[in-house]
Amino acid sequence: MVPELLIFRRLGRAVVVCLAAMALALTGLVAFSGASQAAAQGPCDIYAAGGTPCVAAHSTTRALSASYNGPLYQVRRASDSTLQDIGVLSAGGVANAAAQDSFCAGTTCTITRVYDQTGGGNTLVYQGPGGTGGADTAATATTEALSVGGQKAYALYINPGNSYFADSSSGGVPTGSSPEGEYMVTSGTHVNSGCCFDYGNTETDHHADGNGAMDAINFSTECWFGGCSGTGPWVQADLENGLFSGGSKAWNPSQVSETSHFVTAMLKNNGTTQMALKGAGAQSGSLTKLYSGSLPSGYNPMHKQGAIILGSGGDCCQTNHNASAGTFYEGAMVKGYPSDATEAAVQANIAAAGYTTGTTNPFTPGAKVSLQATTSCCTGAYLQHDTNDDKVVIAPVTSSSTSTAKADATWIVRPGLANGNCISLESANASGSYLRHYAFQLHLQPNDGTGQFAADATFCPKPGNSGTGYSLQSFNYPAKYIRHYSLTGYIASNGGGNAWDTTSLWAQDTSWLAAAPWS
């Protein structure tokens, strides 16, 4: 048996619970006990647990807290100017892109607003006629389709002439010298040097009101003070009257170009003495601390005004046009100065969300796939067969795992043995053996050619029951889906007489990311 399975299956039940609780505590999440696990978390849940609650949260791709079940954004179709809100597939889940596709069929749509998920009223509205007023227009809604956890979503793809703004006097956004943190997921492949692709705190009057009147993340190839090293794009701080790569007008040599398709950018500012910049690829990897130190001279204390900008600088766009280009997937602003541990947990949550380009079906026959758990306790675990017996379990797999462990967690997609419109999953390292259920538990067994085996080994991919990833429906028990429960694989219904049919976390436990194959 591989070491990961020894850890997960041979340690006593109480020890497993203890280890899980310790791991989750390190990221500010809620531990689990027994067979129950922590509910799915979003970045705003993590910030709140760290004592720095979100005061604004925006995304066109997913909910940023586990309980959010409202609209993400609004689209307007060109054919009749009708408006439509686009929500999530389920609470805490991914955007309902199919609703946008249906509404916009045969015409074009623009994104007219991005809703504040905190309930604080800080909804971003485009800066143009019919929006918040101004000279800009709303961004086209369909420029970039992508996948989040295997589900289709759309980006807010901003070109020059598009920008968004929010100003709610009761919205709770920090003002003056109050501490603040913020992040956004953006793209290193759609950038320019125009002023200024920002997300964050800005002036309420659309004017450049002096040093410290802004506190926004900038992501661009713009080199404000000159002397930049590399080609960018870089994570910088727009504090008004300058984009800062560090704590002065001089170029910060610790800056790095962030060129991944999906990039996490972070800024925090305590308002009086210090700030920090961080960046990372949003699909994996830990944050890089680009700068942590004193505020630039002349910016202590800050004079934040509490409006929010997206896609432009603070003195835009009432009589002029935004000159910047950039992509926005999600972002949030928080009250207080987040800890490094909180920010690391937010980055881990973003990576686990499963951002990928395109919307290719991962279950095309002949493709290889690894199935990653989405319940927050187990996001590093994958569905795999146990080399010590024929049971199917979940256990961690990492880049340092053995080649056997990686192959155990890799499946070859085959046309469904009982129905070609569905799929069967053949082991990558046990040719001719398939994942099948027997007495509702999952096993890896050789195909014996019977109709019963074919039916037991056939599953139909569906949108994830939690709104994330995919759920695999049993062909011959359509009310049951592949689920992990107490680290073991079953087919389970949402309620029933078996322990693994418990409704607690059923939606999360039956939702899987179709991850890149380990082998």
UniProtKB/TrEMBL annotation:
<keyword id="KW-0325">Glycoprotein</keyword>
<feature type="domain" description="Alpha-L-arabinofuranosidase B catalytic">
    <location>
        <begin position="43"/>
        <end position="356"/>
    </location>
</feature>
<keyword id="KW-0732">Signal</keyword>
<keyword id="KW-0378">Hydrolase</keyword>
<dbReference type="InterPro" id="IPR013320">
    <property type="entry name" value="ConA-like_dom_sf"/>
</dbReference>
<comment type="similarity">
    <text>Belongs to the glycosyl hydrolase 54 family.</text>
</comment>
<feature type="signal peptide">
    <location>
        <begin position="1"/>
        <end position="38"/>
    </location>
</feature>
<dbReference type="Pfam" id="PF05270">
    <property type="entry name" value="AbfB"/>
</dbReference>
<dbReference type="InterPro" id="IPR038964">
    <property type="entry name" value="ABFB"/>
</dbReference>
<dbReference type="Pfam" id="PF09206">
    <property type="entry name" value="ArabFuran-catal"/>
</dbReference>
<dbReference type="InterPro" id="IPR007934">
    <property type="entry name" value="AbfB_ABD"/>
</dbReference>
<protein>
    <submittedName>
        <fullName>Alpha-L-arabinofuranosidase B</fullName>
    </submittedName>
</protein>
<feature type="domain" description="Alpha-L-arabinofuranosidase B arabinose-binding">
    <location>
        <begin position="372"/>
        <end position="513"/>
    </location>
</feature>
<dbReference type="InterPro" id="IPR015289">
    <property type="entry name" value="A-L-arabinofuranosidase_B_cat"/>
</dbReference>
<dbReference type="InterPro" id="IPR036195">
    <property type="entry name" value="AbfB_ABD_sf"/>
</dbReference>
<keyword id="KW-0326">Glycosidase</keyword>
